[in-house]
Design goal:
The chain folds into 2 domains: 95 residues, K Homology domain, type 1 (Ribosomal Protein S8, Chain: A, domain 1, 2-Layer Sandwich), CATH 3.30.1370; 189 residues, Rossmann fold, CATH 3.40.50.300. 45% of the residues lie in helices and 16% in strands. It is built from 13 helices and 11 strands. Strands 8-7-9-10-6-11 form a 6-stranded parallel beta sheet. A 3-stranded antiparallel beta sheet has the order 1-3-2, covered by helices on one side. Strands 4-5 form a two-stranded antiparallel ribbon. Strand 4 and strand 5 form a beta hairpin. Helix 6 packs across helix 7 and helix 9 crosses helix 10. The longest helix is centred in the C-terminal third of the chain and has 31 residues. It comes from Leuconostoc fallax.
């Protein structure tokens, strides 16, 4: 058992103290929950109590966060969670590098940056590859970063339009009862994409660009028969494509275009017996040049720390079910 110790961090000034603590000490609570330590701020001192490894790691994370404040970066809860995650993964040395580049500024002028090592790999892959697959659980920033990279490419004149699509599998039979044409029926399921667009460039600008067909947000069925040149194309929720849909989508790629395909293979909503096109693509396309696969894990989740724990819990439950089924099958074979 690791010895229990106390270490102390000295705040350099009141600005640093308030920045590290967060509103109502919310950042300190995140550090306590994420690292299993106790933090107590008094005067210009922050006392860290816990087992030796956890306390020392917490001190390193606080120092990394303090360096961001020193460079005039305002911390958010996401930054704190990212620092905790990278600290646990042993990649904290790269934490400061993540903030050295601004991908784009959002509608309120705030810098959009990658938040962890996995996201940095994802962004670098988008830049270098013609087609990038981002595969992993919810909360890893796949959709938001893809939209940010698309808008950045549009602003730099690298593409002439942005096309974002997703299959409508989740809607199921309820689609027929919703008013409007297919696009209007599916629009509610595209809400996360609209939210990302509105955050990055504002609702009015998004609508203007959509009216001019510079931005197109549409269900996957609208992609059939097209060749998409000079475009940044994003397929979201790709785990819900069939093999035929995935092949159809990927072969839409035209000259001077990029594709990003995002999905979570743990949340497949296809009818029983249907195979996910995303899973098949991993196997079929893994060795093709200029196509990259970036795999995120629960450690890359940049939402509240409990989201990562939820992902892990469900993955463990699924694995227990698989193990039980295998055991039953093996027992049945032996009895036979």
């Amino acid at each position: 058992m690791t010895a229990q110790i106390q270490v102390t961090y000295h705040f350099k000034n009141s600005e640093q103290q308030s920045g590290l603590a967060g509103a109502n000490d919310s950042f300190l609570r995140l550090l306590e929950e994420g690292l299993d330590v106790r933090l107590h701020a008094r005067g210009d001192q922050l006392t860290i109590s816990g087992d030796e490894d956890a306390a020392q790691l917490t001190l390193q994370i606080i120092e990394a966060l303090a360096s961001l404040i020193q460079h005039q970066i305002t911390l958010s809860a996401t930054d704190v969670v990212s620092a905790i995650t990278m600290g646990k993964r042993g990649t904290l040395e790269y934490f400061g590098d993540l903030y050295s580049e601004t991908l784009i500024r959002d509608n309120k002028g705030r810098a959009v940056r990658v938040k962890n090592f996995g996201q940095r790999q994802y962004v670098q892959s988008i830049r270098k590859s013609d087609v990038t697959f981002g595969i992993g659980p919810a909360g890893t920033g796949k959709t938001f970063l893809a939209v940010a990279m698309a808008i950045s490419a549009l602003k730099r004149g690298e593409v002439e339009r942005i096309i974002i699509t997703r299959p409508a599998v989740e809607a199921g039979e309820s689609l027929g009862f919703l008013p409007g044409d297919l696009k209007e029926k599916v629009d509610p399921y595209l809400r996360p994409i609209y939210d990302a667009m509105n955050t990055l460039i504002g609702a009015e600008q998004t609508q203007r660009l959509m009216d001019r067909e510079v931005i197109e947000i549409a269900p996957l069925a609208y992609m059939r028969g097209r060749t998409l040149d000079d475009a940044f194309i994003i397929l979201d929720e790709a785990q819900n494509t069939t093999n035929q849909q995935m092949k159809m989508f990927l072969t839409r790629l035209g000259f001077s275009s990029k594709m990003v395909v995002n999905g979570d293979i743990s949340q497949i909503d296809l009818p029983k017996g249907a195979k996910s096109g995303l899973i098949s693509a991993q196997r079929i396309l893994k060795d093709i040049n200029r196509i990259s696969f970036i795999n995120f894990t629960s450690a890359d989740v940049v939402r509240h720390p409990v989201v990562g724990l939820i992902v892990n819990a469900y993955e463990a439950a699924d694995q227990r079910i698989k193990d039980l089924k295998k055991e039953q099958t093996d027992n049945g074979s032996r009895n036979y």
